[in-house]
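Onboarding guide, step 5: your first structure request.
Type a short instruction followed by the sequence, for example:

Predict the 3D structure of this protein.
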Amino acid sequence: MADTIVFPGNFESLDKVCHYVDQIARSGGFDAESLYAIETAVDEAFSNIIDHAYGGENKGTIECQCEIKGNDLIVALHDHGKSFDPNSIPPPNLSTNPENRKERGLGLYFMRQFMDELHFEFSSEDGNSLVMIKRKEKKG
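The system replies with structure tokens like these:
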């Protein structure tokens, strides 16, 4: 895996982690639509770690590794906060009127929609890991 960059677990770090991932994705030749999807997924994942794993800002760090392997961008986020069961999160009801929906709760849905693979790993000793993979669209 690529070098690990450690970011403070706060919302001020969002631009920095997204910039880091964006630079690597651009170097791998990802198009603008894919870059938007990747940035949105990373933003949601990072925010969820702050909000749910740590229960607020500045309560821990988030490690990020990002690399290109073939046509894949692999983004790994690691924290030492509270774990959860991603399968226990029901998909949102998108058929309801947007004004009647909860303000939050679409983060995991967006990550699943925008990335090709999500892999969660939780360990009481080693912390939590989320690996997200985006495949580059083949042209032609």
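Each response can be followed by summary notes, for example: The mean pLDDT is 88.
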